[in-house]
Design brief:
single chain; 365 residues; TIM Barrel; 14 helices
Length: 365
């Protein structure tokens, strides 16, 4: 089997924008396997604009402003720290090879512990640089804003600026804010502003430091188990603490298929009837019904897993996601095309759902 590396140093004209990767080689399709999808992607003769809603980058200028080194903000345990810098041109080539027309870029929060002035500077730089990139490649890139969410009043202002002035699609947030759940009342103004703006909030997990001791050992369990668990808890808290009843128009996109929640969602419907004493907040509907007002990326790895996710949340709620350039899923379009879904559902997941969620104009195919 052959492999290739597509890591190029150089920041281009975007002031230190880096498309992060983990240093692991991109694996080519095994010999004898079907050739990977290429642009344009078509379903039943209809040309689609494939939209990857889960892809990452770093901004060197923001890291510099924080007085940090890249190694300190990169995901723990991920390799290839010395090969994380890409030019936008190289990223576009990688997207073409993956049959991705457009990526919605995000930066996983690494600034939640920073003091207000530093956090504001970091996030503002990131938002401005991403907006610059998106303006120059409007048909290929969109982006989520970064928010200094530990300071909700600041986050409200940043979100409004990002959406109204910079043209960003919403904001990327963690699974908690330094261990504090999103359902806490002090975050309500942020969710209210997001609902008002129609901004999408992309929940990307960051594991649970309190479980670090149990995650030690082989298998990178802090990510393998910890990340999906982080998302699961975040979504359940938003439901059971009544946050989604308070803000029913909130647009949420959950990474990695929403963690474990969709896979075992019906258990949530029985919790309060089995142990009423543990449920002091009356919800407006069954916990599983809230799944239909969230969106989930399709980064669940197998066709059967995609089928199950669709069965639980509805095809209209699933969008394409790759985690690019981390090599979790290097052929995300093939992953959907090979699933046991209808052509209509495949087209929705690859393109139409994200276009509607992010208000992306589609050219006639």
């Amino acid at each position: 089997m052959t492999t290739r590396r597509s890591f190029l140093k150089g920041a281009g004209s975007f002031g230190g924008l880096m498309f992060c990767g983990c240093g692991l080689p991109y694996a080519a399709h095994a010999q004898g396997a079907a050739a990977p999808a290429r642009l344009p992607v078509t379903v039943k003769g209809k040309k689609l604009k494939t939209i990857d809603t889960h892809s990452h980058c770093f901004i060197q200028a923001a890291i510099d402003a924080a007085g940090e080194k890249l190694e300190t903000v990169q995901v723990q345990g991920v390799l290839g720290i010395d090969k994380l810098i890409f030019t936008p041109e190289q990223r576009l080539k990688d997207m073409d090879a993956m049959a991705i027309d457009m990526e919605i870029l995000s930066i996983n929060p690494w600034w939640y512990k920073k003091e207000r002035e530093v956090a504001e500077k970091i996030t503002n730089i990131q938002n401005e640089k991403l907006a610059e990139l998106c303006a120059q490649h409007a048909d290929r890139f969109g982006a989520f804003a970064s928010l200094a969410l530990q300071y909700p009043d600041l986050a409200v202002t940043q979100l409004e600026t990002a959406v109204k002035k910079l043209g960003l699609k919403g904001a990327a947030i963690g699974g908690t804010v330094n261990g504090e759940d999103f359902s806490a009342a002090r975050f309500h103004p942020v969710w209210q502003k997001a609902e008002e703006l129609g901004a999408v909030l992309f929940i990307h997990p960051q594991s649970q430091p309190q479980l670090a001791a149990r995650y030690k050992g082989n298998g990178w369990l802090s990510n393998t188990i910890g990340n999906p668990l982080d998302t699961t808890i975040a979504l359940q808290k938003l439901i059971f603490e009544g946050t989604l009843d308070r803000f029913p128009g909130l647009k949420l996109l959950a990474a990695h298929g929403g963690g474990y929640f969709p896979s075992y969602a019906p258990r949530s419907d029985h919790a309060c009837t089995t142990a009423p004493a543990n449920c002091t907040i009356e919800l407006k509907k069954k916990p599983t019904e809230y799944l239909r007002q969230m969106h989930f990326d399709a980064l669940v790895f197998t066709g059967e897993a995609v089928r199950h996710l669709v069965a639980q949340v509805g095809a209209s709620q699933v969008v394409l996601g790759s985690d690019h350039p981390f090599p979790w899923e290097q052929h995300p379009v093939d992953h959907i095309m090979g699933s046991p879904l209808s052509d209509e559902d495949k087209a929705a997941i690859l393109s139409e759902n994200a276009a509607k969620l992010f208000n992306i104009k589609m050219s006639a195919g």
